[in-house]
Amino acid sequence: MKQDLTIPHGVLDGIEAFLRVAERRSFSAAASDLGVSPSAISQTIKSLEARVGAPLFMRTTRSVGLTQAGEMFLERAAPAFAGLGDAYEAARNLGNRPAGRLRINLMRGAVQPLFEPIIAGFCETYPEIELEIYAEDALADLSAGGFDAGVRMGESLDADVIAVRLTGPFRFVAVATPGYLEKHGRPESPEELRNHRCVRMRMGSGALMPWTFEKGNREIEVGVTGPVIVNDFTAMMVAVHAGVAMGMTAEPVVKALVASGQLELVLPDFACSTSGLFLYYPSRKQVMPKLRAFIDYVRDYLPDDVTG
Fold this sequence. Notes:
By secondary structure, the chain is α+β, with helices and mostly antiparallel strands. It has helices at 15-24, 27-34, 38-52, 68-92, 111-115, 119-125, 142-145, 178-184, 233-241, 251-259, 289-301, 304-307; strands at 57-59, 64-66, 100-106, 129-135, 149-153, 161-165, 170-176, 200-201, 211-215, 218-222, 229-230, 247-250, 264-266, 272-274, 277-282. The chain has a five-stranded mixed sheet, covered by helices on one side. Strands 7, 12, 13 and 14 form a four-stranded antiparallel sheet that branches. A two-stranded antiparallel sheet has the order 1-2.
């Protein structure tokens, strides 16, 4: 019996609008992203809900949330839509031309050290690539989110992904301004940090990131306290620069500030090392010319003081 592979007319209508509203949790923000009016987005979603036969969003004057049907629809629609996008990209780039939108998901703390040195040169070299940088600390499902690749530290990656090294190993170090150390003293051991003011980092999971050090072959985890909690390394550095508290961050991020004397390393002999930053993508995903161009450019042009 011959299988009918015909897709019903209009079945894909409204899917992109649905996914963007689900991501942004806002009809107006989704409309702005897609270059249409909020009323057009609202009408599109209403038509989609009518075809589905169930409401997909809970709307109030202040917020937009997914219904149970909406969550179920999102779980299945996002990977399917991403796969359809990959199909178009594969056909469009058949001639091996680096072009199209390249979506990179990376941890917030990597945005400045990774992209500031190379973004101008990359965009000039590949004018047909539209680079989208999406910063978040939680480890993303690349396929579900429609991302071409992600950037994370090697320790956090699963074994079933393809990982390409972007930087050498580096340390996570505690830093403070000279003024803070003059006022509050310099700790001589990790344990003494419990008596100091420290900026704490709220991770994507909601937990506070511990400050971890190494003493010989032993790992020391210190539960620090302090007057400021952030969820972004840039915000952490604002507090540190102000002399409010000490902070902990990747050493390449503060290398120039330490060299200029604006910041000082604290307990450098106890600093923990990481494996470095890796670009990763699903093993089943074809490496498109745009992604290959990005990988090659970053590895060739990222400065040595970042790559280690």
